[in-house]
Design brief:
365 residues; mainly alpha; two-stranded antiparallel ribbon; 63% helix
Amino acid sequence: MSPNDERVPPSMCQILEKRNEDSNSKNRTLAESDDFLVVDESYRSSKAEYVPRVRWPDLIAQIFIHAGGVYGFYLIFTEAKLLTTLWAFATINISGFGITAGAHRLWSHRSYKAKWPLRLLLVFLFTITGQKHVYAWALDHRVHHKYSETDADPHNAKRGFFFAHIGWLFLTPHSDVVLKRKAVDMSDLEVDPIVMWQKRLYIPLFALLTIGFPVAVPCYFWLESLWTSFWVNFNFRFCVTLNIAFFVNSVAHMWGQRPYDKYISSVENMAVSIAALGEGWHNFHHVFPWDYKTGELGDYSFNVTTGFIDAFARIGWAYDRKYVSPAMVRRRANRSGDGSHVWGYGDADIPKEDLQELNLMDKRK
């Protein structure tokens, strides 16, 4: 072999150039494949064009529920027995604790702990309301709190009253919502056997507890007609329960005071709080989401769910109730509130040592 035929070892620059060429070729191949395009699209956020579309099955379901609810309301005054009407309103209020004390304060925010008999009762009551299973409800609520008033908020109030109230249920979600639902940690619920049992069997449980149980009781015990009981105790009851919950997403993000943080949309609304068993103190709740009372006002007449939790705490079924100290509440109200903060003093729920701390703070001023 002559010296001219000898192969010269490639330099480091040549090696790197070769690697870059191979890498670019591989990337072009991946970019041309359908799988790569799908993966790439999944990471796009609000920069992607969002065009909401109607999910027709969901819209038809809402039309049926609400139109049937109006008809059920008519039957209350024309055909339904008094006990049937009373039963409808009783189930609306009692099952509501499954949302407020269960899906919301316990499972979404972990603001207190509950032993299995109370968790089983709460999942039973929550299923009667028909608002998906606990896992799905808590997932959307955690996304709502973490990304409130952004495109990732499932019922973003900045998109208007109608969207926040009901439109989000039958319009395709923003791509940011889809991404953030995948990112939220739900491991605590995934190890709760009662939550996962309800998730796994939700369809038959919905048929049994959302439809069958409320409708069957009037028919069996006081011989109400199946027709009347269905429209009153399924459609009317279901419609009222849904809209009370929807008011928290819409009204309680628009009309009221902001004593703790005037820079966010959530407000204190007494009417919503009465209807929703204490969930209308929403400015407080978004500032202090870990407080099991979801409000500073301690009177049970305006926060029935707090009384419900406290009652079960007395028998040991509820425990480790978290709450914000009045001193912290006062500091936050002074720093960022709209000046409407008037509650706190004279509240029987406030420990004496916290009242003493508040008095010292005022004297230092």
